[in-house]
Amino acid sequence: MPYTWMPGKPWKKHETHSNLMTPVNDALPDTMPLLLGCNRPLKMSFEDQLNILVYFHLEEHHSGRHLPQVLKEEHFARQYIAPEGGIEKSSFFEDIGSRGLEQMMEMFGKLYAMAAKHLPKGYAELGDLVLIDGSLIDAVLSMYWADYRRDSKKAKGHVGFDLNRGIPKKIFLSDGKEAERPFVERILAPGETGVMDRGYQSHKLFDTWQADGKHFICRIKAPRKRPSLPMMLLS
To answer: For the segment 100-117, what is each residue's pLDDT rounded down to a tens digit?
Structure first.
């Protein structure tokens, strides 16, 4: 549910946003700094970008085009979200285009580790369960790296979901054409059990995962002739 501005109670927005940013702020001091690949200094720090990103989603905005205006004119956004001293539209889009994927992924890993310490672990008797799947994400045509089709750009998110705690554990991004199976190796750790759909079926990879001490449950396609298949579904 989006939080809303309550007449006479501006603290409501501040409280909601502050609660969400508390763990982020705890992890920021040790996070890789965000640098621009030229001599011009950034007008927004990585912390500013995270503040704006959280605000963007809580307000359920569908486009970032009007964000610079909101950051300048809306009282709460100007006071608590915008970079100190404000930011002009041209600088905003130049800096937001330089947001660091490495920093985002590092922050995600730190937040997962924090959450995992506090959330109860369900299905402990089944071991560490990780649901693995990939999903296409619509991208704009100017995102040339998101190769998919001539008239369509899509990225792909490869996600490892911690079934024991009910939260995502690992995320990797690629272009839309990237194969999903190779990411199992990066998502699944030795001793964990991956839960996958039939798109991940590969006897060669089954052997590799078993050799690496990685367990898995994989739905399969039509019956195969390979006699050892039933033993390989749950390693």
So the answer is: 788 889 999 999 999 999
Q: Are strands 167-175 and 193-196 parallel, antiparallel or unpaired?
A: unpaired
What tokens appear for 98 in the block?
């330089």
CA distance 233 to 235: 6
Task: Record the pTM.
Answer: 0.78
Is 142:230 a contact under the CB 8 Å cutoff? no
The string of pLDDT tens digits covering residues 3-19 is 444 444 555 777 888 88
In angstroms, the CA 176 to CA 75 distance is: 40
Residue for token digits 């007449």?
A: 7
> What average pLDDT does the segment 148-169 reach?
92
The C-alpha torsion from 31 through 27 and 124 to 228, rounded to 10°, is -10
Domains annotated for the chain, with CATH where assigned, are: 11-101 (no CATH), 119-233 (3.30.420)
Pairing of strands 147-149, 152-162: antiparallel
| Neighbouring C-alpha atoms within 13 Å toward the C-beta of 174 | 13
Q: What angle do CA 35, 176, 160 make, to 5 degrees?
A: 75
The DSSP bridge pattern shows strands 167-175 and 152-162 to be antiparallel
Residue 209, φ and ψ in degrees, nearest 5: -65, -40
pLDDT of 44 strictly over 60: yes
